[in-house]
Amino acid sequence: xxxxxxxxxxxxxxxxxxxxxxxxxxxxxxxxxxxxxxxxxxxxxxxxxxxxxxxxxxxxxxxxxxxxxxxxxxxxxxxxxxxxxxxxxxxxxxxxxxxxxxxxxxxxxxxxxxxxxxxxxxxxxxxxxxxxxxxxxxxxxxxxxxxxxxxxxxxxxxxxxxxxxxxxxxxxxxxxxxxxxxxxxxxxxxxxxxxxxxxxxxxxxxxxxxxxxxxxxxxxxxxxxxxxxxxxxxxxx
Amino acid sequence: xxxxxxxxxxxxxxxxxxxxxxxxxxxxxxxxxxxxxxxxxxxxxxxxxxxxxxxxxxxxxxxxxxxxxxxxxxxxxxxxxxxxxxxxxxxxxxxxxxxxxxxxxxxxxxxxxxxxxxxxxxxxxxxxxxxxxxxxxxxxxxxxxxxxxxxxxxxxxxxxxxxxxxxxxxxxxxxxxxxxxxxxxxxxxxxxxxxxxxxxxxxxxxxxxxxxxxxxxxxxxxxxxxxxxxxxxx
Lengths: 237, 234
Description:
CATH class of chain B: Mainly Alpha
Helix content of chain B: over 70%
CATH superfamily of chain A: P-loop containing nucleotide triphosphate hydrolases
CATH architecture of chain B: Orthogonal Bundle
Helix content of chain A: 25-40%
Radius of gyration of chain A: 18 Å
Mean pLDDT of chain B: 90
Shape of chain A: globular
Oligomer: heterodimer
Distance between the termini of chain B: 46 Å
Largest sheet of chain A: 6 strands, mixed
Low-confidence stretches of chain A: none
Distance between the termini of chain A: 43 Å
Strand content of chain B: under 5%
Largest interface: A-B, 18 and 19 residues
Radius of gyration of chain B: 20 Å
């Protein structure tokens, strides 16, 4: 099986209703470890993630995976800021991504149960997903995204509006899957989380990549004034 | 008022004695209506799902037309089906006029827009909820439709029940295409119309009460089979 990365983005632009949300952006992602996308509100973090994932339309430029686009789409998944729960039980939610790929039976069931166990949802398998708490729903969304063993997972502010305990549990899961070689591209508002998880940092401002590089270097010695101001907690627009 | 009580008493008596003619008419009513409902659902549900998930040029026109056809006058449908199935009509060779099949065809035409419109509203709302997730999962168009139809099944039950209510109470179209022939195409509604015309109000009311009871029974059965209100919040 060919590798997905590096992901080469060249002059990529996405627009909505005539307004440019992201771009032009040019950069290369190597897919190793955790890439954290940060930036102020409205800087285009969600749109950038969707653009990379292929669910936002690319109006100009190119986004090239190291394999075909179809294969790349099959080998990645997305976790939304507000988890979308299918109107099914927790178990059926976990089975769904496998079902649509024609993978069913006892092996699929075992895999779904293993992920439920890993995310602490083993006691809720038969309950409707909609009755779970916010933290549980987000854990289910992450488990559902991982059950097909993707090579890369895009996470759009996965811990927004969650309490500290749920955030810690989710970060533990993310750290585990990263250790197993799954690439993570994650957007966050939480600078603490960004510092804890990031290996590569991408600072977005007004839809453009303002600064990118090694996370430790970025957080300790940002190169641009805007990034410095953002990290200092100043209002950056 | 006396006729109402007479009707109730006669209905009770007809049911208790399992009057053979009543049983035959009631069973034919159910057979025609449930068959028409099944066929209508097989057409309307996928159509509603397709309209929810796909975007094509005339989509809005199709939706507006379906909504408009919800108020389709049954007598006009009956007349058109009659003309098509009559001996000189384009499908006259099939000899379907004055048969239960003709009644089923008319009922299908009447209830498809109703079921499709109500189902489309539910599926459209669910599609808005699921859109981003299913797109991100790279789900095919057919899988999207299947997912929506399955996950909205309880809401679709409402559409089905609305279709059943419209079909079982229908009289104008099936009177024209069925002819209300004894032992062949007579159903509860046409029998009620006939008995009322003859001045047999008590018997007509009795048949009416049986029709109401039958409708309630089928509704309850469908609710029970669909496990509505029994599986928490979905």
